[in-house]
Write a structure and sequence with these properties.
Elements (H helix, E strand, L loop, with lengths): L1 E5 L6 H11 L4 E4 L17 H10 L6 E3 L12 H21 L3 E4 L2 E2 L5 H15 L7 E5 L7 E2 L3 H10 L6 E6 H7 L3 H13 L7 E6 L1 E2 L10 E2 L8 H8 L9 E3 L4 E3 L2 E6 L2 H10 L6 H11 L1
Parallel strand pairs: 1-2, 1-12, 2-3, 3-4, 4-6, 6-8, 8-9, 9-12
Antiparallel strand pairs: 5-7, 10-11, 13-14
Helix pairs in contact: 1-2, 3-4, 4-5
Length: about 300
């Protein structure tokens, strides 16, 4: 299932998110329940959820993914108030995810903020044990990270340590980000089959609930996390397109988070590449003029 990140806001709220996904020709999508840089959230009654669900049903969209905001950090042992807030917020965000009709909330595992890997991982485990219980309706999909700063979740071994410490780990899943894996040192371009084998050493592949399909501006192992448009980075179109065709992921949401395109001289305005990138991936043919095509269309709009 191929889709992209979509926005949420304005009068249409979640209904607008579904309409945006459909405008890209998407079969699935990923949405934040509010701005990813803050934790302000509207009441569920204001989000037009029944209308959005009806529109999804009428267009054959059966699954979508929610992403937790970037700023909550379950790995923080330095600021107890920040950790406590993250736990309470993520409990509520999981409830919002289920109320919207999603089975999966993607979460950056956390960062140890200078206290070391062991301390950070133990704190993440503590947080997840406070959040998850036997009745939790939606799963948390821990996203593979690039290794920027003190990020955790940069290897399958770290993810396995977290899984092993969580009591209700049947409520956990994985989200593989191709850019993050590349930047963390995994050979996504040259040996993605080997990457999956490394994952499967610790987790059955059915634990992969979502894939973030992004090219990377960086060489393998750079630990920088800078996404690039499909086919314009170091991973390349052929590998990323091949991932979308893998039978193992036929029913897995594959989500684009590639950069918006800016017109020259208008950096304050940007334009979505997702309709074009989805079409390109479906065709299996790379278009080296894609970025310029999007800019030309923007000039004519």
């Amino acid at each position: 299932m191929l889709g992209s990140h979509v926005g949420l806001g304005g009068k249409e709220q979640f209904l607008g998110s579904v309409k945006e996904a459909l405008s890209y020709g998407a079969e699935t999508f990923m949405v934040y329940t509010g701005a990813p840089q803050n934790t302000r959230r509207k009441d569920l009654a204001e989000m037009r959820i029944p209308e959005a669900q009806a529109l999804m049903k009428s267009n054959g969209i059966t699954e979508f993914v929610v992403h937790a905001p970037y700023i909550v950090n379950l790995g923080n042992t330095v600021k107890p108030d920040a950790f406590d807030f993250a736990v309470e917020f993520l409990r509520e965000e999981l409830r919002r995810t289920a109320a919207m009709g999603s089975r999966t909330m993607v979460l950056h595992p956390g960062a140890h903020v200078g206290e070391g890997e062991d301390a950070g991982i133990m704190q993440i485990i503590k947080g997840l044990n406070l959040i998850l219980d036997a009745d939790t309706e939606a799963h948390i999909a821990l996203e593979t990270m690039a290794g920027k700063g003190s990020e955790l979740g940069t290897s399958f071994e770290q993810m396995a340590r977290i899984y092993d410490g969580v009591i209700h780990n049947s409520k956990l899943r994985l989200c593989l980000d191709t850019c993050h894996l590349n930047d963390a040192g995994y050979p996504v371009k040259d040996d993605f089959e080997g990457v999956l084998a490394a994952c499967e050493w610790h987790f059955p592949l059915n634990q992969i609930a979502c894939i973030h399909l992004n090219d990377s501006k960086n060489e393998q192992g750079a630990a920088k996390d800078r996404h690039e448009n499909i086919g314009f980075g170091t991973i390349g179109f052929d590998r990323l397109c091949a991932i979308t065709k893998m039978t193992e992921f036929a029913n897995t949401p594959i989500i684009l988070e590639t950069p918006y395109v800016t017109k020259e001289g208008e950096k304050e305005r940007s334009y979505s590449p997702y309709k074009h990138e989805i079409a390109m991936l479906r065709s299996g043919v790379f278009d080296p003029e894609l970025i310029e095509k999007i800019r030309r269309e923007a000039e004519q709009a």
